[in-house]
Amino acid sequence: MKNFLSILIILVVFSSCSEYQKALKNEDIGAKFEAATKQYEKAKYAKAIRLFEQLATAYRGKPQAEKMFYMFSQSYFKTEQYYLAGYQFESFASSYPKSEKLEEAAFLGAKSYSMLSPVYSIDQTDTSKAIEKLQAFIDTYPNSTYLEEANSVLKTLTGKIEKKVFENAKQYNTITDYKSAIIALDNFIADFPGTSYKEEALYYKLNSAYNLAINSVPSKMQERLENARLAYSGLMKFNANTTRKATADSMLAEIEKNLQQFQK
């Protein structure tokens, strides 16, 4: 009995594979579409894609094209081929503006681009593109059932951009390019006024201003020391109980000590 079942399973699998191979070679697009749909419904998305790729040109403009391109887009998404999924969903939304699947396609297209977003430390071109797509979706479908997820993904992506910009600004301090650090940190604070990195940004601005002043030529030292003192005030105004207060106070003491030579 066990041997019989094993043989039966092998025959079924072989028959299924044989049918799929025949479908790939079949010139009848109707039969090919039926085979592709069958593979899609069985969640055999990679196999379905091969058939959809053969059908794409021939089916464009036909009555069943909408269904076919929707399944084609979903198959790319399910197999995590997000560049192709994003492109196909966008194409679907453009080609079938009256489709009942339009909103879903618009969301999944935007989400596909979000899945391409890399870690914050490398180029964020794909992240920026995903933000643009998601914001466009939110603006177009403000009452969408996908709105909560869209906003959540958008928040994650904008947070990634924010961290990238902050780390880039902080890097100038790390490499002791203090002038550039002050400018970059000021720009960061202006561009992201509600950022969770504001206290840290204000501290690194103080640190940069302090180091620039202390190591300055005599002719520029006074002005730079006064700017450093203002940077200290900015940090204290934001949070007088900052965890970096001891270090900041130490820098202020050195700033005041060096300023005394200009008050004689």
Give a written overview of the molecule.
This protein is mainly alpha-helical and 264 residues long. It is built from twelve helices and no strands.
Q: What are the key terms here?
A:
264 residues; mainly alpha; 12 helices; disordered N terminus
Strand and helix map with partners:
Elements (H helix, E strand, L loop, with lengths): L1 H24 L3 H13 L3 H15 L5 H14 L3 H14 L6 H14 L9 H16 L6 H28 L3 H14 L6 H17 L3 H21 L6 H15 L5
**How much is the radius of gyration in Å?**
30 Å
Mean pLDDT, to the nearest integer, reads 91
Instruction: Estimate what percentage of residues fall within beta strands.
Output: under 5%
| Helix proportion | over 70%
Instruction: State the low-pLDDT regions, or none.
Output: 2-16
Oligomer, anyone? single chain
Following the backbone from N to C, one meets helices and strands in this order, namely HHHHHHHHHHHH
Shape: rod-shaped
Distance between the first and last residues' Cα: 106 Å
Structural class: mainly alpha
Largest sheet, in brief, is: none
- How many E strands? 0
Number of helices: 12
